[in-house]
C-alpha cells in the first residue's frame, strides 16, 4: 500500500470513529442523568478526531507554488 493509500485508510478509520462518537454523544445527551464529565470528554475526543482528519487530508493535497 502506498503512502497516500495509507493516509486515506486512516482517514476512513477516523471518520468511522467520529460518526460513532456522534451516536454515543446523542444517546448520552438524551439521558436526563448523563455524566457531564464523560460527555465533555467524548466531545473533546470528537474534536481531536476532526483535527486529525483535517491534518491528514492536508497531507494528501499537493503543494501549489504561489
UniProtKB/TrEMBL annotation:
Gene3D superfamilies: 6.10.280.50. It comes from the Bacteria. This is DUF465 domain-containing protein. InterPro entries: DUF465, DUF465_sf. Pfam families: DUF465.
Amino acid at each position: 500500500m502506498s503512502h497516500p493509500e495509507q493516509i486515506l485508510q486512516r482517514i476512513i478509520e477516523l471518520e468511522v470513529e467520529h460518526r460513532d462518537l456522534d451516536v454515543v454523544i446523542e444517546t448520552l445527551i438524551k439521558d436526563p442523568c448523563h455524566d457531564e464529565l464523560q460527555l465533555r470528554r467524548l466531545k473533546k475526543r470528537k474534536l481531536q478526531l476532526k483535527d486529525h482528519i483535517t491534518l491528514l487530508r492536508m497531507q494528501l493535497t499537493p503543494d501549489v507554488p504561489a
